Amino acid sequence: MDSNLVKLKAIVEAFGIPVSALQMSGYSQSYCSRALSGDVKCLSPKFFRKLEENLSRLIDERRKQFFDLESVKAEKVDMAFKKSFQ
What is the reported pTM? Predict the structure, then answer.
């Protein structure tokens, strides 16, 4: 498997990026889907170049939170808010 495809799959999985977001490469959603599944025998260098140029935008399209963050209880937020006005 192409090393760029391995990297792309890792980014897509880690950040939960939808296949539709890969269209910023200038290629169709069908091509992007086939590329991820390994159906495209020879992936275009232009495909990866465009994704590299748009990497930050691509990550912005993520569907899931990347870092595990603890939530803050509403009571604590309310108490801190009220203290700030005392």
Answer: 0.69
